[in-house]
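Quiz preparation item.
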């Protein structure tokens, strides 16, 4: 009888321990968050990614009733920040505003220390922002048809700048070259700021820029907007056509995007809470108005839809990268 009681007691204790372990994630999610939450940004302060993160941070902090800290870890087209996020503790206190460059483009042209699909738990798409073809005012091309004509007249003589090798602007330019069947030379810069400075100074004739960077000089008359690269016109520059409006360029689209992710293994109840709060923050009228003035459009999705979108973008841009034979230096 005593031996049976000991065995029964041990079994009960074992079952209680298993129950406690199973209940831990739910309890942790219910209490979450109890300390500040970090959003890792793979670019320096002042850029478009940082702008979006700093717009989201305070509003998300209000919803979570905790401080949200922006942690800028710049370098290598956003992959340094992405690698840090992939290796962070999966407890809901480490988030990452991921980019097209870090999750899709860079892994296709160089080896990165993370798997975009396996090392992150998607939460929601956050924003979409277009690139824009801009030219120095002295350039003869004032539209995309003009640009195609000029490029065909002088194959290999026309240069275009981007914010770096493998940047969304670079890929937008390569897609344009392939569809328009023109030969232009890519000039990579170490960021959009230096590229814009050289464009306005006349050192480079064209720049495929993030629209939030280009709006001020275009409105000031220091650069000429030829076309935006998305599927529709931008509310920030509604008079500027899309590339796809040009005859022969139907189907052209090269939108940039950012989305919120967490390290893989973050408890599902926490992912669900973050999705709910981020969707409310991003869909709020004041957030939409703040960002649309810079050409940035808020857009949300389910985690599953965001994952599917990353897969579709990987397939799309993989073809462009292989066709252009792009490799990291």
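Solution:
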């Amino acid at each position: 009888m005593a031996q049976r009681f000991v065995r029964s007691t041990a079994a009960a204790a074992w079952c209680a321990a298993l129950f406690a372990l199973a209940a831990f994630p739910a309890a942790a999610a219910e209490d979450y968050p109890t300390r500040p939450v970090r959003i890792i940004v793979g670019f320096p302060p002042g850029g478009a990614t940082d702008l979006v993160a700093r717009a989201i941070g305070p509003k998300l902090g209000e919803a979570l009733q905790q401080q949200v800290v922006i942690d800028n870890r710049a370098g290598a087209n956003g992959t340094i920040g992405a690698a840090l996020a992939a290796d962070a503790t999966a407890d809901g206190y480490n988030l990452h505003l991921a980019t097209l460059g870090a999750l899709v483009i860079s892994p296709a042209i160089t080896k990165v220390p993370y798997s975009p699909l396996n090392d992150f738990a998607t939460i929601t798409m956050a924003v979409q922002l277009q690139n824009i073809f801009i030219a120095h005012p002295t350039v003869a091309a004032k539209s995309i048809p003009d640009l195609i004509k000029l490029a065909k007249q002088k194959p290999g003589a026309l240069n275009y700048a981007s914010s770096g090798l493998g940047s969304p602007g670079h890929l937008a330019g390569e897609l344009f070259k392939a569809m328009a069947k023109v030969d232009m030379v890519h000039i990579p810069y170490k960021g959009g700021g230096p590229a814009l400075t050289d464009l306005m100074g006349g050192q480079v004739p064209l720049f495929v820029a993030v629209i939030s960077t280009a709006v001020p000089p275009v409105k000031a008359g220091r650069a000429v907007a030829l076309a935006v690269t998305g599927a529709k016109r931008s509310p920030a520059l509604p008079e500027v056509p899309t590339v796809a409006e040009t005859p022969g360029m139907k189907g052209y689209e090269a939108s940039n995007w950012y989305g919120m992710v967490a390290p893989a293994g973050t408890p599902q109840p926490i992912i669900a809470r973050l999705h709910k709060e981020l969707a409310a923050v991003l869909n709020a009228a004041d957030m939409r108005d703040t960002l649309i003035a810079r050409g940035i459009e808020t857009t949300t999705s389910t985690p599953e839809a965001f994952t599917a979108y990353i897969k579709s973008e990987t397939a799309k841009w993989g073809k462009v990268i292989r066709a252009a034979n792009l490799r990291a230096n």
